[in-house]
Amino acid sequence: MNVRERNKEARRDRILSSAEHLIEQHGSTNFSMIELARVSRLAVQTHYNLFNSKHSIIFGVLNKVLDDIIVSIDLRGGRADPIERVFAYSESAVNIYLDRPVFFHSIFRHIFGIEDESSRLTFNQRAYDYWEEAVGAIYTEYDDVAIAPAVLADTINLYFVGVLESWIHRELSSVQFRAKISRGIAVQLLALNLPDTRERLLKVIADGSELI
User: Fold this and answer.
1) C-alpha to C-alpha distance for 43 and 38, rounded to whole angstroms
2) From its phi and psi, is residue 41 left (phi > 0), alpha (psi between -120 and 50) or beta?
3) What pLDDT, in 10s, does the model give residues 102-141?
4) Where does residue 59 rank: exposed (0-12), middle (13-18), buried (19+ CB within 10 A)?
5) Alpha helix locations (H) across the chain?
6) Are 135 and 152 in contact (CB under 8 A)?
């Protein structure tokens, strides 16, 4: 990366960090591009040159947070047990959201309410890749898994987003959010009918049901 590219990346990072700060400060995404320019100390036109729109900046902030989730997984190291690995990915994602509820309520209310096909596709692909990585070890550890990894990753991703949306709209408490995610993933893993996993997954389902 040359100096020009490094400077461009530094400006992008400054804009995303400033937008993240404003979302935290306001408890919403209702900041103006002029206010964002003031906080980032960059010209308004620079924001549009680098991101095209405010919506793209919001998605950029969300992708930055997804990077944080991936880093938190990497810091914990790989889980030898492939089932525990999936739950570790789930737990890391849930913890990131619950640690900053005001921020995520604000950013997802914005994202669920807009049409920005390009940015949504990018974020959705990254979310899918996250879950594909989470389930990958299952297919290394076990032979003849009936459900393809792409199908399992896509199903978990869609389920996670659905439960997340209920939490965003305050239909679920933090406890219920965590329990529903664990229970739902356990149900989907149970469908794989993997050797020596049934009792463990049934316990996760039972424990989750008690909290919902």
Assistant:
1) 8
2) left
3) 888 888 888 777 656 666 777 788 889 999 999 999 999 9
4) buried
5) 3-26, 33-40, 44-51, 54-76, 82-99, 101-112, 117-141, 149-168, 174-190, 198-211
6) yes
Q: Are 96 and 69 in contact (CB under 8 A)?
A: yes
Answer whether 0.70 is exceeded by the pTM: yes
**Which residue bears the tokens 């990497």?**
74
The pair of structure tokens assigned to 110 is 């914005």
Give the closest residue to 83 by CA, choosing from 27, 142, 159. 142
Residues present in the chain in total:
212
Rounded Cα–Cα distance for residues 44 and 143 (Å): 55
Give the dihedral sign, CA 155/160/165/166: positive
What is the rounded distance in angstroms from the CA atom of residue 85 to the CA atom of residue 109? 29
Condensed to tens digits (0 to 9), the pLDDT of residues 42-78 reads 999 999 988 988 888 988 888 887 777 777 666 555 5
